[in-house]
Design brief:
The complex is a heterodimer.
Chain A: H1 4-23, H2 28-46, H3 48-58, H4 63-117
Helix pairs in contact in A: 1-2, 2-3, 3-4
Chain B: E1 9-15, H1 22-32, E2 36-42, H2 49-53, E3 59-62, H3 69-83, E4 87-92, H4 99-111, E5 118-122, H5 127-131, H6 135-152, E6 164-167, H7 168-173, H8 183-193, E7 198-202, H9 209-214, H10 221-234
Classes of the chains: A mainly alpha, B alpha/beta.
């Protein structure tokens, strides 16, 4: 029988996916992959013993341990990905701020020199 | 482009919250020579650094946000390159460098422009200059020298001296991407990468309470090493 917490977890999983798809543009392949992961998550929420079977099969022990290790891996991946994106943003921000500063200086000079050129 | 000067040398100063000293630093440069232009890059200061220079001869470039000394130096270099300066010097804002040393380095570069791309200041070429450096700083700088020799093959005696004289060619090759303090090591990496020819020149550093408080903290060397390590990983 399905318990309320299982229903809540499944609802949370699909609500999270819906919010993600609504707010971020994703390519179709990623969309399918995420939907697949959502369905898999829902299956393991409904059948936790299946996750334990998979865990025993690959030599991890318990399903919760497998989930913990997978979360660690996923978390590390997300952190690395975000770090890379922040580095790119910082580089772009530097270029923009530099060009703005140089442009402002050049404009101030041209204002200063205008009478000479007239 | 409307650049103001017919002079051949630009002195680039990166300044962040230097309202107390920036005017004196610029004045000391103009007192030492009239043959250079001073370009101050205000790196998003929250004090009145820019106001101190209003009405002065300095060319003021203001970053809209604080990005770090490396970013400010690169902005100054970019400006100087676009303006067509022949020699570009980098000089610390806190007044610890000697304008006389800067002038001597500029002249040395100019005299040897066929065989030399840049002149790098060193605090360890004479025992008198070396004696000015606090013992703890000497130890950290020795470590940095050793690390630089190992990673770039450059035989330098001082790897983190902010006083440098670059030819136009060297400034074109040196594109600083490290916004923070790791830019000093990045410059050395680029010198090695582009096989730029350099000589060292003795420099006297006047450590004051102000410059010691503003200057590089020894503990920050760990952050610099981390920045360089991650940069290498990306390459």
């Amino acid at each position: 029988m399905t318990s309320p917490i299982q229903l809540l977890l499944i609802f949370g999983t699909f609500a999270g996916l819906w919010i993600y798809f609504s707010f971020f543009k994703t390519v179709t392949r990623s969309r399918f992959a995420l939907m697949g992961m959502g369905l898999l998550a829902a299956y393991f929420i409904l059948h936790p013993e299946a996750l334990s079977r998979v865990a025993r099969h690959i030599g991890v022990g318990r399903g919760t341990d497998l989930l913990f290790y997978l979360s660690l891996l996923a978390g590390s991946f997300v952190v690395l990905n975000l770090t890379g994106k922040v580095a790119v943003l910082e580089r772009e921000r530097t270029v923009l701020a530099r060009e703005l500063a140089l442009l402002r200086t050049e404009l101030e000079h041209s204002k200063f020199e205008a009478p000479d050129r007239a | 482009m409307p650049y103001p000067s017919p002079r051949k040398t630009a002195v680039v100063i990166a300044a962040f919250n230097e309202e107390r000293v920036i005017s004196d630093t610029c004045e000391s440069l103009w007192n030492a020579s009239d043959s250079w232009d001073v370009i101050v890059v205000d790196d998003g200061s929250t004090d009145h650094t820019s106001d101190q220079l209003k009405g002065s001869r300095a060319t003021l470039i203001r970053h809209p946000i604080n990005m770090g000394q490396g970013a400010a130096l690169q902005t100054g270099l970019t400006y100087a390159l676009r303006a067509g300066y022949h020699e570009i010097l980098t000089f610390d804002a806190d007044g610890q460098h000697s304008p006389k040393d800067a002038l001597a380095m500029r002249d040395l570069l100019r005299k040897n422009i066929e065989s030399c791309d840049l002149v790098i200041g060193s605090r360890f070429l004479t025992s008198a200059d070396k004696a000015q450096v606090p013992a703890k700083k000497q130890f950290v700088l020795k470590l940095a020298t050793w690390f630089t020799r190992l990673s770039t093959g450059l035989a330098l005696t001082d790897t983190h001296n902010g006083l440098r004289a670059l030819s136009h060619k060297a400034a074109q090759r040196i594109q600083i991407t490290q916004n923070g303090m790791a830019h000093a090591s990045e410059i050395l990496d680029l010198i090695a990468k582009h096989k730029l020819r350099f000589v060292e020149h003795p420099t006297t550093i006047h450590y004051t309470e102000y410059s010691m408080a503003k200057g590089q903290k020894i503990s920050n060397s760990v952050n610099i090493l981390w920045d360089l390590f991650t940069k290498r990983m990306k390459q």
